[in-house]
Amino acid sequence: MSLPLPLRRRRQRGAALLLLVAVLGLGAASLLIGAFGRNTGEAARQQRTLATLAQARDALLGFAATHGRLPRPAASALDGRERPADCASDADCSGFLPWVALGVAGADAWGKLLRYSVTPEMARAPVNSFSAVANRVVLTRDGRGGLAYVAGQDQCDVSAQCLPVVLFSQGREGYGTAASGVPQRNTALGNADEADNDRASRRFISRPAARDGAPGGAFDDMLAWITLPALYQRMRAARNLP
Question: Edge-to-edge strand order for the sheet containing 115-118?
Fold first, then answer.
């Protein structure tokens, strides 16, 4: 039996409305899935980079245990062997992680080379634990935006040691050098803390990721370091510390 015309029209309008809701729902779901996928993808890259830094840190300790010193920076952006000559200054001992010498990945999850800075005295064997001074320091931003020490202090000496080595990823945005050796153009404005890290040889900044407007500017660098007690403990265990 056929339905009256007004009822058929109401049913057709209802079916069309349900179809429209379904289409809109699929569109919203696609947007959510796309956003979720992007967020989880970025989080995965961050986790991979943290794991790469941790592996590099362990490899540095292993290198020191074997060679009685930490390695010098990489020879160049395309040569992951360590520089052949001793460091003549703090700047000479700052560059890229010597990934070939360590047998680890040299780039983060964004394809940018890991940065590396080592105290010159710690890159020469034998390291004299009674007189060598570790001189790298790491700072952060406090609640008011001021700089405060995380590791080390203003003056580094035998009685108040700082850090022997710092390594870091320059993150997705801002500064960095691609694994192909091409420097990345900094497109951010006012990212002063990232700029400081990019040219630093002793003093580095580590803080939570932030966008423009935060004290120190936009920031996504990821830092790791080794303390002097941890380094000496590993070297003593290997009987490689005078």
Answer: 94-96, 115-118, 165-169, 222-226
Q: Alpha helix locations (H) across the chain?
A: 5-67, 99-102, 192-199, 228-237
Q: Sheet containing 137-141: which strands, arranged edge to edge?
A: 147-151, 137-141, 203-205
Radius of gyration of the CA atoms of the chain, in A: 26
Query: Could you give the CA distance from residue 95 to residue 209 in angstroms, rounded to a whole number?
Result: 23
Q: CA-to-CA distance for 52 and 72, rounded, in angstroms?
A: 19
Residue 5 scores a pLDDT above 90: no
Pair of tokens at residue 143: 């609640």
Query: Which residues 6+ apart lie within 8 Å of 134 measured at CB?
Result: 119, 121, 122, 156, 161, 162, 163, 164, 228
Structure confidence by residue, pLDDT tens digits, 96-119 = 999 999 999 999 999 999 999 999
Segment holding 117, helix H or strand E: strand 115-118
Write out pLDDT tens, residues 36-63.
445 688 899 999 999 999 999 999 999 9
Instruction: For residue 170, give both structure tokens.
Output: 């320059």
